[in-house]
Amino acid sequence: MNFPGLLMRLLSGSLMIVLLMSGCTIGYQHTPAPVEDRTKSSPTMATPGRPQELSPGQYVVRPGDTLIRIGLEQGQNWRDIARWNNIDKPDRIEVGQVLRVQPTAAESNAADSNGVVVTPVSRTSVIEPAGNLNKADPVQQGSNPASKPDTVQQAEKPVNNAVTQPSASIELTFTMPTKGKVIGTFDGLKNKGIDIAGKLGDPVVAAADGRVVYSGAGLRGYGNLVIIKHNNTYLTAYAHNDKLLVKEDQFIKQGQKIAEMGSTEADQVKLHFEIRKMGKPVDPMPLITNP
Question: What is the pLDDT along the chain (291 residues), one digit of tens a residue?
């Protein structure tokens, strides 16, 4: 047997195998799998689990929100929020959507020039009682489903719509919005205002001068509701009414009749009254001059 020849053949074969394996390694070029860029999200949506960093005056829509509720909690007219965000269908906001809920400096200054100033005063102040009402005929309101917050209950005979917005230099105080016993006090959690008992049809009056920013039944839990904005700080809400006698954008004077007491979405006839400061509920009693 020719051992040297056999050895040479074995070495040659091993060398060939090594060269072939090296060639395969050298010829192979690893191409990384494409990576999807998930860092970019819609500028008007917050990414779940990785919320978008919000600027002052922005708000992320939560489950159950409506523009009316957002407006109440932010102390704004819901129609302004719709306008600021170019929303033409107010009932179609989406969870996670980022909204601008505060005016720009220019918008705020323009509003201040036509606003009113509301200040707390001593309860011993002498004022005209809330029973002195404008004698406006009650108006039967049409239906306003909660699923359509952009629909406003319109009064066929609005109460004194010619009233002009007061000067910013005029200081106003809140008065009691109706006569009756306070049966529910403010706690800031379960009760964000006060509840006042009464009879069906009892008059409900504006607690201070201002402009109606909502009149309808589009906010769950409040029934027939009127919201009045007094300036860039304060607004008031009047809930569970039987009839609404004012419409949106109507200027209202303190003591003017705006609704009739009822029990819509309530367990009894009563008025639920809230004062909101920068959208946050505050105890109305220290601010009311005739409790």
Answer: 555 665 566 556 655 555 455 554 444 454 444 443 333 334 366 555 545 577 888 999 999 899 999 999 998 988 999 999 999 888 888 999 999 988 887 776 665 544 444 444 333 332 333 333 333 333 333 333 333 443 333 333 344 443 444 444 455 689 999 999 999 999 988 999 999 999 999 999 999 999 999 999 999 999 999 999 999 899 999 999 999 999 999 999 999 999 999 999 999 999 999 999 999 999 999 999 876
Q: Which domains does the chain have, with CATH numbers?
A: 58-102 (3.10.350.10), 116-123+135-291 (2.70.70.10)
* DSSP line for the chain: --HHHHHHHHHHHHHHHHHHHHHHHHH----PPP----S---TTBPBTTBPPPPPTTEEE--TT--HHHHHHHHTS-HHHHHHHTT-S-GGG--TTBEEE-S--HHHHHHHHTT--EE----TT-----TT----PPP-------TT-TT--PPPSS-S-TTPPPPPTT-EE-B--SSSS-EEE---SSS-SSEEEE--TT-EEE-SSSEEEEEEES-STTS-EEEEEE-SSSEEEEEEEEEEE---TT-EE-TT-EEEEEB-TTSSSSEEEEEEEETTEEE-SGGGBS--
